[in-house]
Specification:
This is F-box domain-containing protein. It comes from Paspalum notatum var. saurae. InterPro entries: F-box-like_dom_sf, F-box_dom, FBL15-like, LRR_dom_sf. The chain has 500 residues and is of the alpha/beta class. Among the domains are: 54 residues, no CATH class; 209 residues, Alpha-Beta Horseshoe (Leucine-rich repeat, LRR (right-handed beta-alpha superhelix)). Helix content is 19%, strand content 29%. The protein is built from eleven helices and 24 strands. It has a 19-stranded mixed sheet that branches. A three-stranded parallel sheet has the order 11-13-15. A two-stranded antiparallel ribbon has the order 1-2. α4 runs parallel beside α5.
């Protein structure tokens, strides 16, 4: 007998047909040890295909029940999942379920069976929607308390989620909740805090509704990711072991949000919100290594300008700071709003994504550099212009973006700057002017890596290589690249240092 696997299907072939009067050869495959048979079934990566192997022989009928992983693909009826899990005889390390807008009651029953049985690893529960973007309606899926599971990942679409009011997630280390609507009055903060989730290390909540108050008190949490949690008004995090916090609030419509963060071991903070700046005890930020902020509008006043400026005031020192500088097309306002940033933390690396909108950016970058005298590395990424910006790419005469114009003549020293990386350079005059000034300010610069935008010609890029190399010191190594497509991996070396 031969067993072949193809596209999740199982085929059985006899080496000799029985009609020729000869005895069929012995079934060597079914005589294999269970662990080898289980290896075959795991390769199918689908519970339905694994279950169909029961037609091969009586021995195969029990083998699939020993699988450590059960995976149910799209449009699986939760009742079938419940039956399969109930009949299972082995510890489950992975239960992966994808279903389509099933009734909350049947999905709740399915989860209860999984929690009561042998799920000791990861649960992936994904409800696919027939119509995207539906609001939560109908009943709620009641999440049981998984006392043995180590990882839970739920994506519920238009269904509500009701959290257990009691019980301990004793072994849970990772919890992902995506596209969920919380069913009041259950509190997520209570479920994920140390008293009920003593081992939780990573929590991710994104595209969520109905979570008005989130208060987390956790001794074990190391990573917290919150994105588009609509309606959130109060965020409290007390996590002495937290290393990474990412908060992306755009589109959340939470103008009244108040955020209090106590995380003395925090190393990475990514905060993007247009209405709220977190309350960060200054003395607790000593371990911060990387800070990423929301975008800052150079030529138009916006609410997030205040948020970014206030956030930077709270941080005394950080190794890496990453920001986005946006220039709106057209004149904009008559003020140079980058001056709202009155202080930058002590840092060694500054990363700037620049959306020029047809404007010059030398003055705004110069303003920030003057506050970074100890800077060792500068990373600039000039973002591609939008199609409608190309039409008005010429900066209007007298535009505020070039003020104060003394950046073109003022002398100052960046005597710690060793490395510069510039990506997306288009080769326009104001870019060349800025780079010539930068090479003059940096007295000990060791390397410059410059990547030209893929839309300029290679002949023009090579001409710029000679021009820019002539501005640099002899001890500075300059490397020039051209983009072939999107991403660093698509670039190729155009030329090393060129001296004309």
């Amino acid at each position: 007998m031969e067993l072949s696997l193809s596209g999740g299907e199982v085929a059985v072939k006899s080496k000799r047909s029985s009609y020729d009067g000869e005895k069929e050869e012995e079934d060597h495959i079914s005589a294999l040890p269970d662990d080898i048979l289980l290896h075959f079934l795991l390769r199918l990566e689908d519970d339905a295909a694994a279950g169909r192997t029961s037609v091969l022989s009586k021995r195969w009928r029990r083998v699939w029940k020993l699988l450590p992983e059960l995976r149910f693909r799209s449009n699986t009826d939760p009742r079938r999942v419940r039956a399969a899990v109930s009949a299972h005889d082995a510890d489950l390390h992975i239960l992966d379920v994808k279903t389509l807008d099933a009734a909350p009651e049947s999905m709740t029953a399915c989860l209860r069976v999984a929690a009561a049985r042998r799920l000791s690893g990861a649960l992936f529960f994904d409800v696919e929607e027939q119509e995207q973007g539906q609001q939560a309606s109908g009943g709620a899926i009641e999440l049981p308390c998984f006392d043995r599971a180590t990882s839970l990942s739920l994506r519920l679409g238009s269904l509500y989620l009701a959290l257990p009011a009691a019980g301990v997630f004793a072994r849970l280390t990772t919890l992902f909740l995506h596209h969920v609507s919380f069913h009041s009055p259950c509190e997520l903060g209570d479920a994920v805090s140390s008293a009920r989730s003593p081992r939780l290390e990573q929590l991710s909540v994104s595209d969520a509704r109905g979570l008005l108050n989130l208060a987390i008190h956790s001794e074990s949490l190391t990573i917290l990711f919150l994105a588009t949690v609509r309606g959130l008004r109060q965020l409290t995090v007390v996590a002495p072991g937290l290393r990474k916090l990412m908060f992306c609030g755009f589109g959340s419509a939470h103008r009244e949000l108040v955020a209090n963060i106590s995380a003395p071991q925090l190393e990475r903070l990514h905060w993007e919100d247009e209405h709220c700046v977190p309350d960060l005890p200054v003395g607790e930020m000593a371990q911060l290594q990387k800070l990423t902020t929301a975008f800052f509008c150079v030529n138009t006043q916006t609410q997030q300008n205040y948020i970014v400026a206030r956030l930077l005031k709270q941080i005394r020192s950080v190794a890496e700071l990453y920001m986005v500088l946006v220039h709106y097309p057209g004149f904009g306002d008559s003020q140079f709003f980058i001056k709202n940033i009155v202080v930058l933390p002590r840092l060694s690396t500054l990363g700037l994504d620049i959306s020029s909108g047809g404007h010059t950016f030398g003055a705004s970058v110069f303003y920030l550099l003057k506050m970074c005298v100890g800077l060792k590395q500068l990373e600039l990424r000039v973002l591609p212009d939008m199609e409608d910006e190309e039409i008005q790419s010429a900066c209007p005469s007298g535009c505020i973006c070039d003020e104060p114009s003394n950046w073109k003549t003022e002398e100052f020293t960046l005597n710690c700057l060793q490395k510069v990386e510039i990506d997306g350079m288009k080769g326009v005059d104001h870019e060349v002017m800025f780079l010539s000034r930068l090479l003059n300010w940096a007295t000990i610069l060791e390397t410059v890596s410059l990547t030209f935008d893929r839309f300029i010609s290679e002949d023009k890029a090579k001409e710029l290589c000679h021009t820019l190399s002539s501005f640099s010191r002899a001890e500075t190594r300059m490397e020039f690249y051209m983009k072939r497509g999107v991403g660093i991996a698509s670039r190729h070396l155009l030329a090393p240092r060129l001296r004309g």
